[in-house]
Sequence to fold (133 residues):
Amino acid sequence: MNNFSQYIPFLDKFAVTTSGFCAIHCLSLPMLLAIFPALGATLFGKEAFHVWLLWLVIPLSIIALSMGCRKHKSWLVASLGFIGLSVLVIAASFGHEGLGETGERVATLIGATVIAVEHVQNYTLCRRVECGH
Fold:
């Protein structure tokens, strides 16, 4: 596992970026669709886009958070990260049909924010372990 621990910073940064992209997509899509209706015909305009992002975020987060926690021993980071992932899975699974448009948007933003915060925390704790303080 030590051979792979060098990738934790990259994985954390990529996960934060992906979570941020998810949040921006969620907030800006309704406005962009009003301005550019043809965008609805692309992958970015489809509800399935969140599911595709999840297929990227879930393994990325599981790997980065679990490897980081083995390094810095703060399992709270992984636990909260997995809660954030669960919220994203619920938002993507139920969508606006099950949660309503506002509910889906709020759940997605909460999940993405929690995941991003925990990846920043994971990155910070791993750096402290490497620096020895």
User: Anything to note?
Assistant: Helices lie at 8-35, 48-72, 75-131. DSSP finds three helices and no strands in the chain.
